[in-house]
Every structure is written in structure tokens, then in C-alpha cells.
Design brief:
mainly beta; about 110 residues
Amino acid sequence: MKTIEESIEIGVPVSTAYNQWTQFESFPQFMDGVERVEQKDDTRLHWVAEIGGDKREWDAEITEQHPDHRVAWKALDQEGPNGVVTFHKLDDSNTKVMVQMEYEPDGM
């Protein structure tokens, strides 16, 4: 299992960062490698993205969602990553967004 961890500090309030993150279908506009995200219902998503140089397509289920704090998901098949994103208020107008994803690389 490979783990990717990234964080970024952005100049918006935590609620703005959280609200943008939960607009899943807009991910291709700001996330490298994501070609398409289709929200099937409140907890299920279909993804098309490039991971580790390979194009993958998978379904995922949101397993936790705590407004302005945390969103976690799991892939429903082997093609996609499991992950969590957390939102940390730095002050009234700055937020740290942390993402952790785990996936099974092809090969090895």
C-alpha cells in the first residue's frame, strides 16, 4: 500500500475551503490528474483519474463527513484510493487543508 500525504495553507476561512472540497464534480478544475468525478448520490462517487502514471476508474463511498472538519472515503474496488481530508482553522481567514490517500500501486 502506498500513502500520499500533502497539505496546503490557503487564504480562505475553513468553511469556504470545506464547501469547495465537497463540490466533488469541480475537482478536475483544480486537481491535477483528476479527469472526472460524478456524484451518484449523497455518499457515492465515480472517479476517473491518473494515479501513479496510470489512468484509473473507480467508485468510492464517503464514510465520514463532519462539516468544516473532515471528509473520509473508501474505494469500492481495488482501482482507487482510500483517503481523508481534514480542515484546520489557522485564523478567521486562513485554513490548512491536509490530504492523506492510500492506494495499491500496479506491479511489485
